[in-house]
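## retry 2 of 3
previous attempt timed out at serialization; input unchanged, resubmitting
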Amino acid sequence: MELTETQKTKLAEAVENVLQSRNFGGELATYDDYIHVEMVKDALEQNDVPQDIEPKDINHELTLTSKLNSEAWADVLGQNAIQNRDELNKLIEDEDELVQAMLLQDDDNFDAEVEIKEEISEVRNRKPTKETLKDEMEEVYDSYEFGEFLEENENEILQQAVRDSANDEGFPQDVELKDIDYTIDDITFTQSFDAVAEKYLDDAEESEDVRGFVAENLYSILENEKQFKVEIRIESDPEDVGA
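## retry succeeded, writing output
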């Protein structure tokens, strides 16, 4: 519809009002989610965000800044979005309708800027990869703490290692383990943390808190996997036991 100067002025005033008062970036998802997602994807790529991280995975804010002034917008809308006076009046009187009409025009009418509001490490805490889960496991793991965990749980592998070492030192086969003083010199794994991370990746992702998941479950996971060996140093003397 070709607008009169009066109509164009009224429409331009309405456009100027929404340009100043409305968050076009936030509202784009409501009116055209596909375009919203594509704009954010482009911005994430430009910021070297890993490709497996999607817009829904990361806290961000899309800002759209109009390339056109209000008068130019009035021309665009008159040509593409208004067929009659009723449609014109609807855009002038209803901000939501006007915003929608503007957003549904060529997306080249806006400059898009995406602010990423969190570190990638925070995203990875919710959406880990096998590598980041493995790294967290290696960061948390402490051999001394794991040894204490095994002792508290009266772990069979640990107890057998103590018994075998005690027998090698001359203790009788039926010696009570509680009577033997020993030190855990080393714990070695026959399964890599990489393999463990791959096995438990889905569980970690479902938790949406990898740091909490690892802190709470790592030693239980390692014990249940039973893929470790314990090196024991016997501190007691066979002659002192039962004396």
